[in-house]
Amino acid sequence: MTDKYSIILPTYNERRNLAIITYLLGKVLNEGNFDWELVIVDDNSPDNTQEVAKKLIDIYGKSRIILKTRPQKLGLGTAYMYGIEYCTGNFVIIMDADFSHHPKYIPKFIHLQREKSYDIVLGSRYIAGGGVYGWNVVRKLVSLGANLLSRIVLQHGVSDVTAKKYGYSVGEVPITFIDRLYGESKLGGNEIIGYLKGLWDLLNTL
């Protein structure tokens, strides 16, 4: 069976980024001869993101671009879970629409998974070869603080936690995490509260 890759792309006010990242996704995946589809989950963006998505469906076709909408902004994590329901591929790739996760890394993820038969492959900015670019001091401190908190509370790396709970094998690819191309960051109080809640729930499963 030929592998098919479903990319889930949550959007909220990503009108200026969506067409560009879709083009780059298609370019990278087509050059690698990978079978793929893009599942866009839009939380009723007021900037006409959905209209851009509909035009992309006209260009790429309904078999390539799938648009699913929700009535309001409901959060990144739930958008990924919602999108999974509509994936037809046997592998799922989750990423942001703002170029924080660049499509150029996807072939490395795929090749590592195929080579090692990993269940999960993560992009990490905290291993050798990874990093961040374009973040201000506050954003870096928030990120470092969140990662330090998770390590203290869980006393495991992300890979260890996942493997312990589900028995999955996990590989990591170094990536450079960059600031968004267009628009404003969605990181706010609700996202921070959601992170803390998720951390607590995860702790209770161990």
TrEMBL record:
Gene3D superfamilies: Spore Coat Polysaccharide Biosynthesis Protein SpsA, Chain A. It catalyses: a di-trans,poly-cis-dolichyl phosphate + GDP-alpha-D-mannose = a di-trans,poly-cis-dolichyl beta-D-mannosyl phosphate + GDP. It comes from the Eukaryota. It is found in: Endoplasmic reticulum. The keyword Chloroplast does not apply. The keyword Transferase applies. Pathway: Protein modification; protein glycosylation. Residues 6-147 form the Glycosyltransferase 2-like domain. This is Dolichol-phosphate mannosyltransferase subunit 1. It comes from Pneumocystis wakefieldiae. The lineage of its organism: Eukaryota, Fungi, Dikarya, Ascomycota, Taphrinomycotina.
